[in-house]
Amino acid sequence: MTSHPKSDFLAVMRARGYLADCTDFEGLDEALSHGVVPAYIGYDATARSLHVGNLLNIMMLRWLQKTGHKPITLMGGGTTKVGDPSGRDSERSLMTPAQIDGNIAGLKTVFARLLTYGDGPTDAVMLNNAEWLDELRYLDFLRDIGRHFSINRMLSFESVKSRLDREQSLSFLEFNYMILQAYDFMELHRRYGCLLQMGGSDQWGNIVNGIDLTRRVLETEVYGLTSPLLTTSDGRKMGKSAGGAMWLNAEMLSPYEFWQFWRNSTDADVGRFLKLYTELPVEECARLGALGGAEINEAKIVLANAVTTLLHGKDAAEAAEKTAKDVFEKGGVGDDLPTLTLSVEEVADGVSVVQLIVRSGLAASGKEAKRLIADRGARLDDAPLTDPGLMLDAAALASPVKLSAGRKRHALVQLG
Predict the structure, then answer these.
(1) Average pLDDT over every residue of 292-302
(2) Residue-wise over 22-35: b if at least 16 C-beta within 10 A, else e?
(3) pTM score, two decimals?
């Protein structure tokens, strides 16, 4: 790779840590330096919201647009019917077209916050691969496209190989996924002049397939760029926490919980996350990430405010910070804490504190909740919880109670 990219986009990708691999760095750099490059990332509609792990790639599209190029957000209305085997131990359960359409409607809200859509040369466009995949005629597709794929080569791809090595079933349906994704890239180039596909490094094989297919069928050159698969410094997959996935849609994860996720980053991750998930200058990200002691907590608040502002707006970030201060500094409950509302019927015979810890999202399972209590990490209204068998009834919940896991994670439980 050249030491100094000519294009602003690749300079940003390298400086901020987005760049894992590129199929032809110099060729892509040249194309980016000589006009508007349309580039896409595909998103299968397996849930109503994307999560923090996906946010990294949306930030790549945002930087692409900010540096004068055209983002394409491709909704996988067609490919979701098949299911991507990458990184999975088992086949996804099949979804109905209505479920897929509902999920796509949920995904659109996040993109609208982070990208500018419209008809201009660098305005983003949202497409759905069902537009061309739903119309495919099977025998024509096998003759025109299938003949370009070697089974031997497809068996060597990590997403396939890992499943077969562990003797886990890989259905013929899933095996077709990489052919359909390759076809997407070729169709996007043919219809919209798309020159670049981006994705996480687990998508490298799928991206290379699309480049090869486009070269063979259309006799033209397109490019691929991958980002590192992000894990936190303690080895966890980015976007996952004890309470479950860190969703981007506010109705699935409150802005306060989202803010809190970033505020709880480990010290070693702060500088890297500032570069990847905010638009603060690289030098400022490095300075904040290098702080130690109590000062690193201020850097975490800067991180939480910046990411929450990008996704949910300035008001939501300020409200989250205020709630955090109310809870941590003043011992109050705050206005914006995650809240579990129970009916009087539910607590008629009493409800266990272990169940409340799980239902409020402070632990992923009853076992984890009991361990939290045993380790003296759980509190009820700021008093240590020591009895995992404690039951709460309607009288105990006459006014809201605050549950805490550690010093940083809190939830309210109240009667509805």
Answers:
(1) 93
(2) bbebeebbebbeee
(3) 0.79
